[in-house]
Give the backbone structure.
Amino acid sequence: MSWLHLEGAVNVRDVGGLPTVDGRTTRSGVLLRADNLQDLTEADVELLVAQRGLRTVVDLRSSGEVHLTGDGPLKARDVRHVHLSLIPEWDGEPDAAEVERVLDELTQHAALPPLPARPRQTDPTDLAGNYTGYVRDAGANIGAALTVLADPASGLSLVHCAAGKDRTGVVVALALSLVGVTREAVVADYLRSAERADEILARLKGTAAYGPGLEGVTAAQTAPVASSMEGFLDAVDRDYGGPHGLAMSLGVGEETVARLGARLVGTSPRAR
């Protein structure tokens, strides 16, 4: 897992180098994860596009977020953009209302139902229930995101949302799990965003779209905790028989899973 040091984004990393259950490692230069790309500088764009070869961006933000922040600088380059919101949207809902619900998710106050058959969580930052809500409310878009990442034509792909930890964390965790990355490594990758919690929050607070709703919020309230991802993966195992079963339920077929494995790991048993 290597950080990309950009001027206009703070939570950007390559998910290469993660161990799989069969002793392999994920490839570098295939999948990046990031926070919002709105503030990328010309030097950042040069690094991502010209030097790294970025070809596809999967944007998991809501339409309201996109409308309020406008097009980022990558839109002017030859980079494919796929918008797949994981936040439920309703016709006629003001953009600001969508963003408010996004901030509820970010700050652990969303009124989503708890996971069934799990004891009540004592950690207020545990977001496992929120993450299962993404599957419940936007499962088709999660499936579509995995399909894009599995497509060889997507080339180097980058998945992002606002902070790069929750919506991005769920999609990346499922992609990594599907190709056989160990559960410990999946959780560890998710937790890396905690290293940048202060910078992520400061960046969001400095924006017109997110800042007003984050007044008084601390980095500790937004930093990821292991129980969030562990609880989500537990729910996937319990309710779908594991990530593979969840993928099938979302319309991600065996061939797509095999292509994803071939791209992220190579000719692992799941990619044969």
